[in-house]
Amino acid sequence: MADSSADWEEWQQAFRKIGDFVDCSNMFYNGGGSHDSGDNEGKCAHWTAWCAYVDPFYTGKGYYEYNGDDAPGSLDCHKPNTEWLLLGCYAQELYQWYEQLSKHVWAINDYEYVVALAGLAYMTDEHCLGPAYDGYNNAVYFGVQGQEGGNIQMATYSDDQCLYPVDTDITYDDYHASEGVDLGSKDQGQDDATMEQIEEWWYDAQEYTMTLFNEVYEDYKYCTSCMDYPTYQDGYFIGDTGTDDDDLINQCWKFYSHDSFNCQADCIAMAAFQGSALQVTVGDKTFGQSFDGQYASSSSSNSANAQATRIERLKANLYLTMSGIVFVATFLAFAVARGSSKKKKAGSRSRSRRLLDADYGGESSRRRSSSRAKSSSRTSSRSASKSRSSSSRSKSRSRRSEVGDYKSPSSTSGDRARSKSRSRKTSSSSRK
User: Fold this and answer.
1) How far is Cα 174 from Cα 217, in angstroms, rounded to an integer?
2) CB 362 within 8 A of CB 370
3) Spatial separation of the C-alpha atoms in residues 404 and 399, rounded to whole Å
4) What is the Cα Rg of the chain in Å?
5) Cis peptide before 131 (omega within 30 of 0)
6) Across the chain, which distance is largest between two alpha carbons, in Å?
7) Distances (CA, A) of 375 to 364, 369, 371
8) β-pairing, 129-133 with 236-237?
9) Which of 98, 203, 392, 421 is the one with CA 20 to 30 A from 64?
10) Could you report the per-residue pLDDT of 362-376, keeping only the tens digit for each?
């Protein structure tokens, strides 16, 4: 174990939750804790066990010792083979532990902050509530019950000290009457859409298994820096950004100064016996059950680093906001460009139509000209042909005319013979 009297630097300290349990022995009201006052003497009370650690190899880089790509350290004090040294284990009143953490690690509109406050309002800081009456008219009571894996729920009990769970036909949901959303004095001024979302988160968180409540505190089962970065106070940054050295809160000190007491091996053993303690080694003894991520090969493969998770959530919220702005701007630019494009396309189509018409008209004109030229050519050809034909016929007629005028010798002899024959016929006739 580490020397609790040494002056350890704030950034080399870390904590993690161990489990929740009930104590009726008043073991903490003996002056052995962060203070010796309290009003729960003689009564059973609910407690949360948590442990603090120090990194003996801390190099002095502050926040960047465990955050960033070149971080030399690793927040892995939840691992069995860790090099972190146990500084001490403590028990704090259950309601106080959850409340103190919720005050300093989330913004007022964060889902986690709303669910945390809804769960706290739902379970109240009373140890045991009731009575109510089940279907058989039996009196029953309600109170927080530690669950395996470091979770809690609102269980039903048969006694007014909420020590003996009972199965019955009613749950705390049947008994609890919600008083509405209450984020404190600073929850005014939210717009309607934001308040509607907050109300949905609020009422979803208020059910007896407390599933959503357990989920938002899941990270704190793993090794978490004691320095809240950024730091909030009831949902709002301390200072401008919650990251200045003077504005940061040491969460381990907050726990210790608000109803925390030293929790020795017998205290851890009590939490383990009741079934909710996560695995932890105190001295040479190991208590509790192992849990998911405890044996992961590196801190980057599990949710041990709650501080880094919060920063990533902040980055994610900023990213979503910027993405929304970029989307709207892009959509508007697209709409304007599309309208302009439509106009250009309409003009282009009109121009293309004119060009096509012009091209078609020119082509038609060329075709008509070509057709006329061909027709003229054919006409000229026919005219030429006709002319040649006429000339030929004329020449033929001329040749025939010339042939008619020409008399061959045989034809003349024939004519003469026929003339003589007619003369003889005439002479003969005369002689008769």
Assistant:
1) 25
2) no
3) 9
4) 54
5) yes
6) 202
7) 16, 9, 6
8) unpaired
9) 98
10) 444 444 444 444 444
Closest of 312, 314, 311, 304 to residue 14, by C-alpha: 304
Six-digit token pair at 384? 């030429």
Checking if the pLDDT of 36 tops 60, the result is no
Q: What angle do CA 227, 2, 225 make, to 5 degrees?
A: 15
131 neighbors 141 (Cβ within 8 angstroms): yes
Catalogue the E-assigned strands of 148-195.
151-157
Cα 350 to its chain centre, rounded Å, is 45
Q: Of 29-43, 174-188, 234-248, 361-375, which has the strongest mean pLDDT?
A: 234-248
**Cβ pair 148, 289 in contact under 8 A:** yes
Task: Give me the phi and psi of 20, to 5 degrees please.
Answer: -120, 145
> Encoding tokens for residue 87?
């500084």
What's CA 395's distance to the chain center, in Å? 104
The C-alpha atoms of residue 134 and residue 163 are separated, in whole angstroms, by 18
Q: What is the mean pLDDT of the chain?
A: 78
* Burial per residue of 215-245, b for 16 or more beta-carbon CB atoms within 10 angstroms, e otherwise: ebbbbbbbbbbbbbbbbbebbeebeeebeee
Strand 139-147 relative to strand 236-237, pairing: unpaired
In this prediction, residue 329 carries a pLDDT of 73
d(CA 258, CA 38): 11
More confident residue, 357 or 69: 69
Q: 287 CB contacts (<8 Å, ≥6 apart)?
A: 265, 268, 269, 271, 272, 277, 279, 280, 281
Q: Which residues share a beta bridge with 345?
A: none
Query: For 179-224, how does the pLDDT look when each residue is reduced to its tens digit (9 = 90+)?
Result: 899 998 665 667 889 999 999 999 999 999 999 999 999 999 999 9
* Cβ atoms of 9 and 70 closer than 8 Å: no
Give this prediction's pTM: 0.68
**Confidence band for 293, pLDDT divided at 50, 70 and 90:** confident
Whole-number Å distance between alpha carbons of 189 and 195 = 9
* Positive/negative CA dihedral, 296, 271, 264, 34: positive
Confidence of residue 330 (pLDDT cuts 50, 70, 90): confident
Q: Of 336, 27, 20, 13, which Cα lies nearest the Cα of 149?
A: 20
Token reading at 156: 């039903």
What is the token pair recorded at 32? Answer: 């052995």
User: Between the CA of residue 116 and those of 3, 55, 80, 144, 431, what are the distances in Å?
Assistant: 34, 30, 29, 15, 173
